[in-house]
Amino acid sequence: MVSDEQTAAWGLIAESARRRGGRMAAQDVCLACADSIAVTGVGLSLLAGGRLEPTHVVGELARRLLEAQLTSGDGPCVEAVTTGAPVLAADLSSAACGRRWPLFTAVARNSEVRAVFAFPLATGAVRVGVLVLARARPGPLSDVEQGRAFFFADAALALLLDERARDTTVESGADAGVLPVESLALGAQVHQAAGMVSVQLDTDVEEALVRMRAHAFAHDMALSEVARRVVERALRFAPDPLTRRPNGRD
Amino acid sequence: MESHRAELPGIRAFVELADTLVSDFDVMDFLHGLAERAVDLLDVQASGLLVTDQRGNLALMAASSEQSRLLELFQLQNEQGPCLDCFRSGEAVHCADLTGPEARRLWGRFAEEAVGCGFSAVSALPMRLRHEVIGALNLFSTEPGELAPVTVELGQALADIATIGLLHERAVRAGEVLAEQLQTALTSRIIIEQAKGVLAERHVWSMERAFTALRDYARSHNGRLTDIAHGIVTRTLDPGDLIDPPDHADR
Questions:
Q1: Which domains does chain B have, with CATH numbers?
Q2: Mind telling me which Gene3D superfamilies this protein's record contains (chain A) (predicted)?
Q3: Nearest CB partner across the interface for B197, out of A183, A194, A249
Q4: Chain B partners of A160 at a C-beta cutoff of 8 Å?
Q5: How far is A177 from chain B (nearest CA, A)?
Q6: Is pLDDT of A169 > 80?
Q7: Single pTM value for the model
Q8: Which of A19, A28, A130, A148 has the most CB atoms around its CB within 10 Å?
């Protein structure tokens, strides 16, 4: 029951893997997807601890889109993974999109991303992540393109799970079962900075991340830019004087 | 015309079974329904399903009545009976007369027990996918005699449906387990990076130095890196306990 179309798509994925000189992986799916659908960028985010973490990115536009998603904490990707249904935003500058994702559209307005198409990855009852396509011009996906996107989402999931199945059979040692730092497509600094800010504010990392996001939003910066400054110790956060407790935890 | 009319309830049963495969799928409900439909459709008086678990051991999954439940368990306990022969060989096993010499020779204790329960004939059909046999469907009749070929065919189709349902359920579960492992692996990486940040801020260390301290602490305390990092991030482990690491020559 594999169509010619799907055989051709797997061919693209395999070709990409050959060029990289590796085994077929989710990165090849993103590359093949960008090749065979008229979009400017492709990204992949996976759920981790209830939040979407960008893990794969193809093209600068997709990087900006994932950055906006990370900074705002909402948007089509978050909605797709929450609802389990694809979210097709053919024109981000429309009033409807602005109402639907006020933070995301505000953050994304300088990013040149004009259309976003998010396809959820799920197996059984477990929601895994989102494959997202970004375009620099508004306009919907054609039916054929949408069909291909569904296929690429399934292919990405299949390869991610296959990789995991291989890993667990060979791994051992202290950091067994930990993805390499390269898996964080937007870098590790956001998380390192969240750890640092949690000490500065004497709070947990979730609260630290909220404060970093608010700072990014207020200063029209990307979250990863805020994180970079924190890690370079050029930016420190001070406890909010109104909520500050007389004695911090020790 | 006659055979056409007989096929209709069969089709209805298959439609119902297919329906349970796609809606909220509960494997035990599904197999129980299948055991009951086998009795209705195949004109036998009882049925039972033995299926392998994930480690390859046979276990009772469903039975249409208390008697067939007991007989399936009896086969498992005594390691003899038509269901076990069918499972081992992957071929259908038919016994038209449980009081006959062959039944007594092959499975004496089982035959005696089955006759005691009021049954006269038994069949076992394999649940098979290519080379893999994952179980068998047992059919019990109170009247002696062979099952009609069309009944055997229909029974085998039911066994095939049970096979598909079970393998489907196992594949889904395997996918879910892998997906959860993937999320844990990514979350672990994030927590390690957060812990590096906590240590870097607390001790005014570089990220590299923070990681070395984390790794050395995990090694010397025989802990997993992720658990130590989680302790640091949630402060159940005092970041002050991880003192300035000495420089290691083995790096």
A1: 2-174 (3.30.450.40), 176-241 (1.10.10)
A2: 3.30.450.40
A3: A194
A4: 182
A5: 5
A6: no
A7: 0.75
A8: A130
